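Researcher: Next entry in the queue.
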Amino acid sequence: KEQQTVLDQKLQSSPTVSATSSTNPVFGSNDETAKDAEEEEKEMLGGVKSDMKTIQETFDLSQVPKEAYILGLAGVLPYFATSAGTVYCAWEINHAASVGSGFLMSGGMAEALLHILEPLQIGYGAVILSFLGAIHWGLEWANYGGKVGYPRYAIGVLAPAVAWPTLLLSPTYALISQFIGFVFLYYADNSACRRGWAPPWYGMYRFVLTFVVGISLVLSLIGRGEIAVPVGEVPTATQRIKAFRETAAIELSHQEMATR
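Model: Structure for this entry, 260 residues:
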């Protein structure tokens, strides 16, 4: 009877209980939750903006002279062209080997074009490395950052000393050697900026250009490495000199035998 009496009793309405009480958070009100979420979103956006600002300041090229900026970017276009050509020729050679015919050119034509692009890229790289080294001679003659002397002259001497012998190597080893040369020369240029031997903007300027050149050289190496069929190589300067000596020795022996 007592249980039935309790069940028959009607619940009394209370102003402290609302229809949305069950949807409210356990701790705090809706306003406090929304405020916390808004503050968290502001902190997250502030962190993203701070990171973007740091990246922008790190790669800031606004202080680079306009002429140097334009000509520097134009100078990397031959690398893009030769690297893209190398990758495409490699694809054409593989396509001709697997299908029996090329897409836009025959396998033999693609191989011939590849033998033209490789010396162009290697020769251009040697010229650019020498040019980058010569900049330090110009800075020394302009007395930028004071008179440095032999340390700054040494950079200008070592750059072509490393660059031009790569013409005697096979294409693969020449590209690898020039890649290493560009990286070490960038570190030398960056060190010169820290010491005040070069303009403050020159370090980041060189980083951007070296990054583009490095990517181009890597693409050329990948493209050549992806060639599935054996491809002949144009004789290097060393091989030509060796062949010339052997031919001269044979002709000399024939002349000696003829005079006897």
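Model: Residues 118-225 form one domain.
Researcher: Noted, moving on.
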